[in-house]
Structures are given as structure tokens and as C-alpha cells.
Amino acid sequence: MSNLKIPKCDIEMSNLKIYIQAAQQISIQQPLSESWMMEPVFYDEPLVKAINPSFRDFMAANEARRMGNVMKRALVTALQVLRDSRVEHPDAMMTGTGLGCLDSTEKFLNAMVENGEQTLSPTHFMQSTHNTIGSALAIYTNTHGYNTTYSHSSMSFDLALLDAWMQMKIGKIESALVGGHDEMVDSYFELLKKIGYVGAEGMVPCGEVAVSMMLNRRMSSGQLCELAGITLYNTSSLDELKSNVEDMLKEAGMTVGDISAVMTGVNGNPWHDHYYQAVTNELFADVPLLHYKHLFGENFTASAFGVYAAAHCLKKGSVPSCLYDAGTPRTCDTLRTILILNQMNGSENSLVLLRKV
Amino acid sequence: MVEPIFVTGAGIVSAIGVGKAETLASLKASKTGIGPMKYLSSIHSDLPVGEVKLSNAEMMQMLNVADDSQLSRTVLMGRIALREALDEARLTGDQLRRAAFISATTVGGMDRRELFYAQEKDCDALHAAIATQGCGSSTERIAEPFGSFAMLSTVSTACSSATNAIVTGANMLRCGLTDIVVVGGSECLSMFHLNGFNTLMILDSQQCRPFDRDRAGLNLGEGAAYLVLETKRSVRRRSVKPLCRLSGYGNACDAFHQTASSPDGEGAYLAMQEALHEAGLMPGDIQYINAHGTGTPNNDESESRAIKRVFGDHVPPVSSTKSFTGHTTSASGSIEAIFCILAMQHQFLPQNLNWHTPMDEGIIPVISQQTEHVCEASAKNIDAPAKVIRHILSNAFGFGGNDSSLVLSKCDA
Questions:
Q1: Cα radius of gyration (chain A)
Q2: Closest-approach residue (CA) in chain B for A148
Q3: Stretch A113-132: mean pLDDT, rounded?
Q4: Are B65 and B177 contained in the same domain?
Q5: Same domain? B164 vs B150
Q6: CATH code of the domain in which B89 resides
Q7: Are B299 and B264 members of one domain?
């Protein structure tokens, strides 16, 4: 059946709100669960693989065998989100991934070099493009709508979220499945460690990411929160960043004083954390500070965990103690809004504003 | 009525030339850039490829950068194309602060990585940095010498990547996030994807023959192309002269198979329909289709069906310019968009080279008058268009069924 997308105008643009209806994760915490809020798992190892759920509950064994870990996890989080939100075919699917199906890519590359470009099998190549994940979601759910993939290092998920937000703002779509997905293999971890991205002394573990969420312009009974704004900006100037934050808040009808908590991607890597510290000290000195990577680990699309965790906090109406920064007062008396900061290279910034419904 | 989006700059490098002037000359002379492998090092050197006719060292010289082993060919080609696009749009320094840069790639820096792969185990930080250059870092490095864009983004949907970068950029303009976007893609040949496509057995050992009954696969190519897109307000404010309009775009998913297109071309059909709908056009308004036309048995059959589903018995002239450049994968969408712009500016139909025999129920592409087979349909399709070219449809389809189409229109159309 054709589901040709025609701009939908039945929702008043002036009354346009975007909701996060459901969000699920598979990570180094318990999969498909919010048990990390009360019983977080902590690790000492520098590289921790995700805890897989029972894939058999979601797909046949022969289907599972054909897919790598990152694809299976993406599919399971997506299927659970489709169930939770009761959306069968979202109007759009936006996927963010830093490295795509890394395991397949590494296997094909290794076989190609080892065998001198001979006797190669196509299987790993077929699953090596970055959009393999996003298209697998469409193939599995038979969804013909808009489908795209962003692969821009640590901004990959944020760009996917921005795309959904933009197309909702201009009335092209009503619902979107947005995800961030990355896996890790030992050999590639060693390379990333050499460049100081992960594995640094005192740093959170490198983890694996599978986060899916449903964005919807329609209000339903169980939505987690409102996506009140998102801005991506390339600048290393604090002044410019400040005016971007103010512009975004203004558009959402808010000021800095209305922010209940700021959530950052601080990960214990001093080379990386000082960018966040400069911003939070300068712009949000009096706002309670939250972090999430000490629970979920670092990886290119780890910022998806920030949005996922903040959305669930807003649904719950409180912040679990495990998210608070050590130096911040552990209180968000009236949890109304959370601003999530993500950055890379000290210049590419993402600001995501979530508001309680 | 939606605000029009104008193209105000375009830059290109491919097997048929560096820059728009060389590209136009090759297209008009029907001169292919596909030939024996010269710059890529692979044991499959018998496979014809569409290489950019410059070594990395020559490109570095053109760009006036010091010899740098970290720079991937994707970055070098990208900078050459970006420079031309920004120059034409007169976008410099401060003005870049208003513009978003959205670049597409899939291979990224794989060409560098595969060179040093054997030493990775014991490599130093520099070589680890080379090995971990992902898609995003290619975008950052391409942009680096030109200044600071307001935002950077990398789209990666395999062979439709550049078209989807154009789609994302257009949505940004429509949404009012910014009033200038620079969009397109860059992709160099790599051993990795040459071998990958080879294992899929979809590479032709001869020059590719899109839409021919005896077609036997694609030839891989490489290149880069970028477009500057602006809102009407920005065009007026900066007093720049637009080349054409991006009047419509569509993105749909075939949702059929990771590396094959559905027999009825559902994704392609939906993408073309959406692009036409957004442009407010009927199929009869299109004077030329630049097909995805890879030359694989599967694509050309599926795309023929999809085109016929949209256009019925009145299919406008169609050609696949991959017969000139090879399949430039992630860059093909923006490279072919620029071919369309040239066709519109200079009012000619790029030919579909190497076509001799019609497929069963396939479309009959634009061929030269000299071709032996001149049937009634192709007699109409000689390279001088019968009608003024006002609107062009350009297709790009990727692995996983990530299918996208663009409609480019004359400014006054």
C-alpha cells in the first residue's frame, strides 16, 4: 500500500508541539528497562559491551542470525517503541550512527587485506554501509516513509533528532522514529584509545548504544515529555553559544531561570570535559547539573542516552540520585525542563530542550 | 505557497573534468571519463573505473596545501568542488557563519585507512587518527580551509547520500533554521567498496551500459559536487544571481532488500511522486529525467518500471550519465544535479552512452544520432531537445532502498 506523504495541515501550526512518546534503550545498563534509575550498574573496565535482551522475543532465530549486534539491538528498541507508542508505520525514520555496522565493516576490511582482495564474501559488505541500520528498520516494519541516516561523529544522533523536529515544524510529518545506534569491537576500541577518545585514565567506559524514540505531533496519554527545542551550532565562542541558548529558550517561551536542570555529556576525560565545564560555569552556574555517561558509557551516539534519560526523568517527575553531578545540590524541586548539552571538538554543540507535559 | 529555494553556486569534480566548464565540454562532446584504473591500487585493475584524472599530490598542489598523508582523496576532491561552489555564490569568510554545510559520504577516509591497515596493531597516534577518520571528519576537513560554517552535518545513505544532503539542507531552509546551506557529497574510490561491489557481482568488466538489454553491471566512479542553496530573501539581500530553483524533492524507502530494488520500484516511485507533488508539477511538466541508471540488471529494470508508473506512456527523455562518470556512489546525487543544471542552462540533453539494444519494457534513453539503432522513439530523443527544458527530475537510489528524487527548475519556470 502506498503511503504517499502529503503535507498534513490538520494540526494548527500555531499550536504545534512535539512530543517524545516513547523511548527505549539497550546499553551497558539493563536492556529495555528503566531499572538504572534505582539500581544502576557500574563498571571498572574501559570497554563494556551492551547487555543484550532476549532477541528471540522479537524475531525468529534465523532472522537474528543474519544480523549483527547493532542491527538486532536497533531493531528491538525500535519494535518496542512502536509497540509502546502504538504507531505501526511512522511517517519518517531518522537514524544517527557514528560508525554504522562496525563489526561487519571491520570483518570485511580485515578479510580483504588478509586475503589480498581475493575470496571475499559479500555478507559483511552488504551490512557495512551506515544506512544498513535505518533501512533494516524500514524493511522489517515495511515502512515506506522518509528514511535517512546521519553519520557525523558525536553529533550523529542530534542531527537525526533535528531532522525530525524540522520536518514536524514545517508540517511534512507527524510521527518519526528517531534512533542512535553504535557498537564497538576490540580492535577499533584500541585505535580510539590511541587518539584519546575513550579509555583515558579516570574516564567512563566505552559502551555500546541502541536508543530508539518516537516523536509525535499528536498528544497521547503516555508521552514522556515535550521536545521544546533543539539547536545545533558550530562555535567555540561562549558568547555565541549563550545567545543561541537564549534564542532557543525565547522561542520556547522561556528564560534561563526556567531551566530545572542541565544535563551534560561529561565523561571523565579531562581533555573533553573542560568544554562542558566552561559552559556550565559560565551560563548555568546556579542550575543543578546532571550527567549520564557514567551510567551508559561513551560512544559516538551516546548523546541519545541523555535525551532518553531526561525524557524518562520528566515523565517520572523526579531525577534519580545517580544522575546528579557530585558537586551539585541534589534537588530539582520542581522538575519542569531539562536542557541537554552535547558537544564535540569544543566547537560543534547541540542543545536539546525537553519540557514536562 | 512555499518559499522558493534557489541554487546560487555549484562546484564539481568527476572523471569528466575539474569544474563546470570541463564537465560541460565533456557532456556535450559525449566523452566518457571511464577508463583503465590508474590512481587506485587494486588487484582488480582490469575493471574500468571513472577516476578523477588527478593524483592526490596534484590535488594538494591545486589546493595549495602541503603534502599531508592524513588527507583522504574524499577530502581533496571535496575541497576542489566546494571552492568552486562558494566562489560562484560569492560566499566568503563572514558569510559562511550564516550557512550550514551538509556533506555526504559513506567511504569517508577509508582510502587512507586501507593503505595503513596492516600496521594498525602497532600504530602510533597519528596513524590511529588516520584509521579512525569517519564520515564526519571528512566533512570537517573539507570545510576547514574555507572558514567556520554555522553548522556541520554528514549524511550517509549509501548511493543516495548527496541527494539526501540536499533534502536535509532544503528542509533547513524551509524551516527557517538558516537562509543559506551548502550541500552535496564527496566520495573517492576505495579498495574497500570496489571489492564490496565486486563480491556482489554487479561490476561490469566493460564500460557500463545503462538501460541496455545486455547491460552487465556498473562501473565505480569518484568525485565531489556541492550546491549553494538559498532562500529568496537571502538571494535578494546578497544580490546574487541564481542558476536555477530546487523546486521539489522527495525521499522514500523501498523497504524491500538491503542491496536490491523491488521489482515494481515502489521506493523510487514514491520518491519521484513526492518530488513532483512538492514542486506542484504534473509528470508532463518534466522535460528530462537524469536517471539513477547504474547499469545493473536489477536497478535499470526496477527504475524503468517506476518511471513508467509515474509517467505512463509519456516518458520524457531519460539518460543515465553514469555512462560518463561511473557510479560516484555517495557523491552521485549532487554530481548529477549539477549535470542537470548544466543541461538546463545550456539547453541540451546529456546522452546515455553505450546504449544499443532496448530492454524488454525498458525505457529508451537519449542516444546520439550516430548510434546504429535509431528507432522511432529514439529519433525524438536526439541530443537537441524538442522542447525548452524547464523542469528536470533527478533520481538517486541507495542500498537499503533509500530512494530520493529532486526536481530542478528554471528560475522563471
A1: 20
A2: B157
A3: 94
A4: yes
A5: yes
A6: 3.40.47.10
A7: yes
Residue A123 CA to chain centroid, in angstroms? 28
Q: Are A65 and A47 in contact (CB under 8 A)?
A: no
Domain count, chain B: 2
Q: Residue B223 carries which DSSP code? A: E
Catalytic annotation on B135?
no
Inter-chain CB proximity A129 and B256 less than 8 Å: no
List domains and CATH numbers for chain A: 13-216 (3.40.47.10), 228-355 (3.40.47.10)
Residues B282, B184 share a domain: no
- Residue B88 Cα to chain centre, angstroms: 19
Evaluated on CA atoms B20, B139, B66, B191, the torsion sign reads negative
Is the Cβ–Cβ distance between B94 and A157 less than 8 Å? no
Looking up cell 505557497 gives B1
The alpha-carbon gap from B376 to the nearest alpha carbon of chain A, in Å, equals: 34
CB pairs under 8 A between A and B: 211
Write the burial class of residue B387 (CB in 10 Å: 0-12 exposed, 13-18 middle, 19+ buried): exposed
To the nearest whole angstrom, how far is the Cα of A46 from the nearest Cα of chain B? 18
ipTM of the complex: 0.96
A160-186 tens-digit pLDDT: 999 999 999 999 999 999 999 999 999
Q: Give the domain extent around B318.
A: 244-409
Supply the DSSP symbol for A50. -
Confidence of residue A270 (pLDDT cuts 50, 70, 90): confident
User: Does one domain contain both B168 and B250?
Assistant: no
Residue B197 has which C-alpha cell? 561491489
Cross-strand partners of B317: none
A25 Cβ under 8 Å from any chain B Cβ = no
pLDDT at B383: 58
Residues B233 and B359 in one domain: no
Active site residue B327: yes
- Please check whether residues B84 and B148 belong to one and the same domain: yes
What is the biggest distance separating any 2 CA atoms in chain A, rounded to whole angstroms? 64
**Which domain-ending residue is among B238, B254, B289?**
B238
Annotated catalytic residue, options B135, B327, B340, B391: B327
Domain identity same for B190 and B77: yes
B259-290 residue pLDDT tens? 999 999 999 999 999 999 999 999 999 999 99
Q: What is the pLDDT of residues B117-158, one digit of tens each?
A: 988 988 999 899 999 999 999 999 999 999 999 999 999 999
The three-class DSSP label of residue B293 is coil
Element (DSSP H or E) covering residue A228: strand A225-234
